[in-house]
Amino acid sequence: MSTFDSLSPEHQGTHLKELAQRSLRHWGLEGSDLSLVKYRENAVYQVSAGNGERYALRIHRHGYHSLAALQSELQWMSALNDSGIAVPEVLPTTDGRLLVSESTAVITAPRHVDLFAWIDGAPLGSEEEGLGDNAEYVDKLYADLGRTAAELHNQSSRWALPEGFERHAWDHDGLVGDAPFWGRFWELELLNDSQRRLLETARDRISRELSEVDRSPQRYSLIHADFVLENLMADNGRLRLIDFDDAGFGWHMFELATALYHIQEEACYPVAKQALIDGYRERRALSDDDLDRLELFLTARACTYLGWIRSRQETRTARELAPELIRRAREQAERYLSSRS
Question: Where in this chain does the record put each Aminoglycoside phosphotransferase domain (predicted)?
Fold first, then answer.
């Protein structure tokens, strides 16, 4: 374990801010004020320049993505912006680079850093806050999200990938193969024997069913892969997507399942689900056969969150979320298996 990893989150924050300050020179922003927006895996700071302009600076966690994968993420975000889809504007350095690497005396492994135009607005919610009981608001929100998802899939299914483009895949192997992208969820040490057997059974069935789903551009392309409330920003009445850290190649139904997974216990879930589907169908075809696979992709999504815990058990966030994510995954697997028996 590195010196940095052994520090408390508070002390880690001190050294990350030092690294952020060192990074500002690459954009000609030396001396700007920094305030922490979020530190869970990546660290995000608001940069307030002397001329009144604001920016969002992101420090990536070490070892999650390669340099090529991060550059590819930023290339896709720029292409989405060019096509009219509302995502944060990527700001190159003064010498034209999309991201830089920095280290400090304590953070000795270089961290990748990038910069975006600031978005005025606020996340539309969080898992802790939930959707609330305003059905009209939920209907509009998820219809907008459905349309946005469809437009994003329209762009990604037609886009010619730049040379050297590299992102992970939420495909069969990335979800339930021998080495899933977020880890071997069925080996999570926090599972009891009954839960482990249940998830192994679910994994076997997911594997068989995913093997039968085609990967044509109609159903599979680049996806955002993290349509949760805290990644949806209201900006002057426009829905804007943020946080493409998990973006990769995947089935479009996995995208929609991710948007629905954490809200299934909300009173307005039926409204949100139907609005998401209806909004999507306004912009892109979605067959009833595709929708029949929703439970498959909801269960695959549930499993990934257990892999996420297993690969990050040293973090306070993973430890705090583990009981709830395990409960949800168990209940989702039971629904999936009972519906397919």
Answer: 41-285
